[in-house]
Write a structure and sequence with these properties.
The complex is a heterodimer. Helices cover about 20% and strands about 35% of the residues of chain A. By secondary structure, chain A is α+β, with helices and mostly antiparallel strands. A six-stranded antiparallel sheet of chain A has the order 1-10-9-4-3-2, with no helix packed on it. The mean pLDDT of chain A is about 95. In chain B, about 30% of the residues are buried. Chain B has a two-stranded antiparallel sheet. A two-stranded antiparallel ribbon of chain B has the order 3-4. The termini of chain B are far apart. Chain B folds into two domains: about 230 residues, Cytochrome Bc1 Complex, Chain C (Up-down Bundle), CATH 1.20.810.10; about 80 residues, no CATH class. Classes of the chains: A alpha+beta, B mainly alpha. The complex binds FE2/S2 (inorganic) cluster. FE2/S2 (inorganic) cluster (FES) binds next to loops of chain A.
């Protein structure tokens, strides 16, 4: 008679303690997980005037919360890529001397099609579209 | 046994009766430190502890002015180093001491390896020590972001993105660290919380456990010293911890303070440029010296190794290396209990060589 009673009490005590522990930890755990903040989806942005960017130079434009690298390759040719390196998230830049896109963090190199030329990046950079409207440069997401 | 009616003990006086100082004195009198050709290395644990207390003190001072938000963090540190009296010195000491503390912790760890002080029954002392080193690195990583400058911004992007490469749980881990999908204000607030509350709390508890273990097992004498004296029919000579070793340790702390003060005053820690999430990573970017070896390794690993992405391979490599190192006391003896002396020394030398060469390459290339 004593043993089963003792076991039952042990179970009740252990179960009760575990249940309260879980009920403390669960909200704390959920609390640590940051909520999703929906971002207004941006589909195109103005990147300034045509004459503001000289041929063979590049600049970072704000595409919502993302950095996009806009490159004016020649007088008439433009291209744009996500400026987020596919390796470990650094922001890339245009290298005028070699006409390539370079990531300073671990020396990743991409060509002007966004493809990886050398270094650790595993994927090409995502390409964006560039249109000229009057004298305004417009960068937009590719469909 | 004292009871309410018993007259107070006269001997030792008021404090003695309340604190039991005699027990503490007796305890101190029993603790000894082995004296041999490598006694020098025993000082580095204490130096690490000393630098940690400097971190706590200077960190507390910095808290009086620092503000953890992207709009104010950089400016508040700038305010500390330009306007607050001795602000530049306090901040410089905090940064230098952090680096010296990690250096001294590394020296302490390697001396434990080469003197084989991790042997049974000190496995838990080793494990708690390694955990403390991990915490020191976490302190370094989180504290690095707080001034919100360009280099620290990108270092945090890279560091947290490595967490994202962990299979299955990586995405959530990175989100947990960043407080969102990318490094931003939420990350700064979080890192601040880790740096000044979470990490100090855990560290204090673990530090007490580590010290209690050192206390319980006493200082380990290297086997060769034990053998050498046994052949002469003696045991390894000991010096009393208090006051002999303690006073020497105090001198070592003075020396450390001298080095720290000179470095902090002669080479004040730079602040750099304010982080701009829409600026490219600057040329020549690199992390703090203690992360240079993994940083350079990541640079060398190609985009794909067989079918796996390079970063995943790197991460798996670092993970396995860390696991192997943590488990050192357990593979340092074979099944029959015979020590694998050569293996341990070899492993120590190889790891040290890897860290030294890759850090140097990471720094200069
Ligand atoms: S983050 Fe771009 S090369 Fe590593």
């Amino acid at each position: 008679m004593e043993e089963p009673r003792r076991n039952l009490l042990r179970w009740l005590l252990g179960g009760g303690l575990s249940a309260s522990l879980i009920s403390f930890l669960y909200p704390a755990f959920k609390f640590m997980n940051p909520p999703d903040i929906p971002e207004a989806s941006v589909n195109e942005v103005s990147a300034g005037k045509v004459q503001d960017l000289k041929p063979n130079t590049g600049k970072i434009v704000k595409f919502g919360s993302l950095p996009v690298l806009l490159v004016r390759t020649t007088e008439t040719e433009w291209s744009a890529f996500s400026a987020v390196c596919t390796h470990l998230n650094c922001t890339v830049q245009y290298k005028e001397s070699s006409h390539q896109i370079w990531c300073a963090c671990h020396n990743g190199l991409y060509n002007l099609n966004g493809q990886v030329v050398s270094g650790p990046p595993p994927h090409p950079l995502e390409a964006y579209s560039v249109h000229i409207r009057g004298d305004e440069v417009v960068v937009s997401r590719r469909a | 046994m004292a009871s309410a009616t018993e007259p107070p003990q006269q001997q030792g006086g008021w404090l003695e009766e309340r604190l039991g100082l005699a027990a503490i004195r007796a305890f101190l009198a029993h603790k000894t430190v082995p004296v041999h050709a490598h006694t020098l290395w025993y000082y580095f644990g204490g130096i690490t502890l000393f630098l940690f207390t400097i971190q706590v003190m200077t960190g507390t001072l910095l808290l009086l002015y620092y503000r953890p938000s992207p709009a104010e963090a950089y400016e508040s540190v700038q305010f500390i180093v330009t306007r607050v009296q001795f602000g530049w010195l306090i901040r410089s000491i905090h940064s230098w001491s952090a680096n010296l503390m990690i250096l001294s912790a590394f020296i302490h760890m390697f001396s434990v390896v080469f003197l084989r002080a991790f042997r049974r029954p000190r496995e838990l002392t080793w494990l708690s020590g390694i955990a403390l080193l991990g915490l020191a690195l976490a302190f370094g990583f989180s504290g690095y972001l707080l001034p919100w400058n360009t280099v620290s911004y990108f270092a945090t992007k890279v560091g947290t993105d490595m967490a994202a490469a962990v299979p299955v749980v990586g995405h959530n881990m990175a989100r947990f660290l960043r407080g969102g999908n990318d490094v931003g204000g939420a990350t700064l607030t979080r890192f601040f919380g880790f740096h000044v509350a979470v990490l100090p709390g855990i560290t204090t508890m673990l530090l007490l456990a580590h010290l209690a273990l050192v206390q319980k097992h006493g200082m380990s004498s290297p086997r060769w010293a034990v053998e050498e004296y046994r052949r002469k029919g003696q045991s390894v000579p000991q010096m009393p911890f208090f006051p002999n070793f303690f006073l020497r340790e105090l001198m070592a702390w003075y020396a450390a303070l001298g080095v720290l003060g000179s470095l902090a005053a002669i080479f004040p820690w730079e602040l750099g440029l304010k982080a701009d999430p829409f600026a490219p990573a600057p040329a020549g970017i690199r992390p703090e010296w203690y992360f240079l070896a993994p940083f350079y390794t990541l640079k060398l690993i190609p985009s794909h190794v067989l079918v796996f992405e390079g970063e995943l391979v790197g991460l798996a490599g670092f993970g396995l290396l860390a696991l192997w190192w943590v488990a050192l006391p357990f593979w340092a003896v074979d099944r029959k209990g015979v020590e694998r002396t050569r293996w341990v020394t070899g492993a120590g030398v190889v790891l040290l060589a890897y860290l030294a060469t890759f850090s140097a390459l990471g720094y200069w290339r």
